[in-house]
Amino acid sequence: MPDIAIATLILGFIVLIVIVISRRGPQQRLHPVPPALRPGDPDDVLESERLTSIMRWGVALSVFLAGFLFVYMITDPGRRDAKAEKFRDQSLERGAKYFALRTDPVTGEENLSGIECARCHGIGAVGGENEFLNPATGKKTTVKVPELETVFARYEKPPLGFKNARAFIYETIERGRPGTDMPTWGNKFGGPLTEQQLDDIVNYIEDIQKPIEVESGATGDKVFAQFCSACHGQGGAGGSGPSMLGGSEAAQFPNIDDHIAFVKSGSTKGTAYGTKGVGTGAMPAWGEILTDEQIRLVIEYERSL
Question: CB count, 10 Å around CB of 28?
C-alpha cells in the first residue's frame, strides 16, 4: 500500500509537468529570455481565465497532496511493523547460523557463520556434554551442558538485578560464567561477538522456546534428571553447579525447610545460603516452575545422595 501511494505521487507529478509543458506555446518554449527576466503580464492578462486556471490547478494539487499524506500516514504503522518483522526474520536467520555447527553433521554443508553454540548446547539447543579443563584445579572433566529450549521459562522470575529473563540470558552469554565451561562472548568483555550478534543469538533462543512439561507422577530422581542435572551433573556429581554427593546438601541445609525455601526462591548473587553457600544468581526460582510436591521429592532425592 505505501509503495502504491508513492508511485501514484510520482506519476501525478510527471503528469502535472507534462500538462504544464504542453500548455506552453511554441514561442514560450523557444523564447531566448529566461522566464524570470521577462516583463510581467499586465492585470488584464493575469485577471482572466488564466488566473482561474492557475487557482484550479493549485486546489487540485493541494487536494492530491492532502490525500497522499493521509494515505501515507494511515499506512505508516503497517509499514513499520512489516520492516520490524523483516528485520526480526533476518535476525533469527543469522542467530540460527551463529548457533549451529560449522559443518552440518547430516548434509556436510559448510556454515561459515557458525560460532558453534550447538557444540556444547546441542543441535537445536537440546543440551549436551563438553570436556572442561578447570583453570583453578587443572582437572579435566566431562560436564553436562544445559538445554536452552526452556531457559526463558526457567528464568521467568529473573535473578535480582535483572528486569526479565532476556536481560539475564543476554548477560550470561555476553560475560560467560567464570569457573565453568561457559566462555565470555561479548566483545565489551574481551569476547568475539558484537552486540548485534548477541541479540541475534538471544532472538534465536527465544524463538525456539517450548513450555516446560513435567512428567506426571515423576519421582525425585527423574525430576532431578530433567531439571537439575544440567547444572549439577548426572546423579548430582557436579557441573557448573556444585556437587551434591556425600550428604553435602543435608550438611548445607540441616533444616529441610530451609532447603525447600532456597530451591523455591533461587539464589541471589553474593547472598549467603545454608551453612556456607554463596549465591551466584544462576539458580532459578523453581517455585515458579515446579509444584511443592515435586520440589520436596527432588530435595529428598538430593539429600539422599
Answer: 11
Report the alpha-carbon distance of residue 56 to residue 85 in Å, rounded. Answer: 43
Task: Work out the number of other CB atoms within 10 angstroms of the CB of residue 227.
Answer: 22
Under 8 Å between Cβ of 154 and 169: no
Q: Which amino acid is at 204?
A: Y
Q: How far apart are CA 296 and CA 292, in angstroms?
A: 6
Could you give the count of Cα atoms lying within 13 Å of 97 in the half-sphere of its Cβ? Answer: 12
CA–CA gap between residue 305 and residue 298 (Å, rounded): 11
* Span 86-96, pLDDT tens digits: 999 999 999 99
Reported as a single tens digit per residue, the pLDDT across 240-254 is 778 888 888 888 898
pLDDT tens string 22-79: 655 555 555 577 767 877 777 777 777 778 888 888 898 898 888 888 988 898 898 8
Give the Cα separation of 222 and 217 in Å (integer). 10
Specify the 3-state DSSP secondary structure of 119: helix
Tell me how far apart the alpha carbons of residues 77 and 32 are, in angstroms, rounded to a whole number.
50
Question: CA-CA distance, 16 to 7, in Å (whole number)?
Answer: 14
Integer Cα distance of 240 and 146 in angstroms: 9
Provide Rg for the chain, Cα atoms: 34
Task: State whether the Cα torsion 155-159-163-167 is positive or negative.
Answer: negative
Q: Which of 248, 260, 258 is nearest to 285 (CA)?
A: 260
Cα torsion 193, 195, 196, 198: sign: positive
Distance (Å, whole) CA 71 – CA 88: 26
| Residue 166 CB burial class (10 angstroms; 0-12, 13-18, ≥19) | middle
CB atoms within 10 A of CB 283: 21
> Maximum distance among all alpha carbons in the chain?
110
